[in-house]
Design brief:
Elements: H1 31-43, H2 53-90, E1 95-103, E2 109-123, E3 130-133, E4 139-141, E5 145-148
Antiparallel strand pairs: 1-2, 1-5, 2-3, 3-4
């Protein structure tokens, strides 16, 4: 195996990168490529020890299964994309609750509050739909959607709780509720 190649000129010598090969025509086997490989294998086989028919059928079955799974995966991805776009389009004119985020110390966006507004428009040209709400210049993704209508803020810090589990202590009881007389 070849030694890794070091690249100079990076901003930090301690920065590492992860590299992975993406699928392309050179590193994937299509059905046409499989049949070309099979034909070459049959042409160049040893006549004194020919290829086993069951092995040939097993290879053809496996290739057909891989092709079927690939087609099914592509179909599911297309279906999911259409469903996502349909859902996003149905939000136009609806009041929604959107998460307001801030970047944490790791650079990840974390929700800190919510914003209530009507959806003005949805943009499909950027891949994932982006949502524009009234009174805000920011464009949100569907991952920012907390709910339809005015959903209570799930990111708000709770008030102080009493040991009995009620918020706000004794004074938070309903004022119209009659108090029971104390017995001694």
């Amino acid at each position: 195996m070849a030694d890794p190649i070091s690249v100079s000129g990076t901003s930090s010598p301690y920065t590492t990168g992860a590299y992975s090969a993406s699928a392309n025509d050179k590193n994937t086997l299509s059905m046409t490529g499989y049949f070309q490989l099979l034909a070459a294998q049959l042409q160049n086989q040893d006549m004194t020890n020919p290829m086993d028919n069951s092995e040939l059928m097993a290879q053809m079955t496996q290739m057909a299964m891989v092709q079927s799974l690939t087609t099914m995966t592509e179909t599911m991805q297309n279906s999911t994309a259409v469903n996502t776009q349909t859902y996003a389009a149905s939000l136009v004119g609806q009041e929604v609750t959107m998460a307001v985020t801030e970047k944490n110390s790791y650079g990840q966006e974390t929700p800190v509050d919510v914003k209530y507004a009507k959806v003005e428009w949805v943009n499909f040209t950027t891949g994932d739909p982006t949502i524009k709400i009234e009174g805000d210049d920011k464009k949100y993704t569907l991952t920012h959607l907390v709910g339809m209508g005015r959903v209570p803020n799930p990111f708000k810090k709770p008030e102080t709780e009493d040991p009995d589990g009620t918020e706000g202590g004794e004074d938070s009881k309903d004022p119209e509720e009659p108090k029971e007389p104390e017995t001694t």
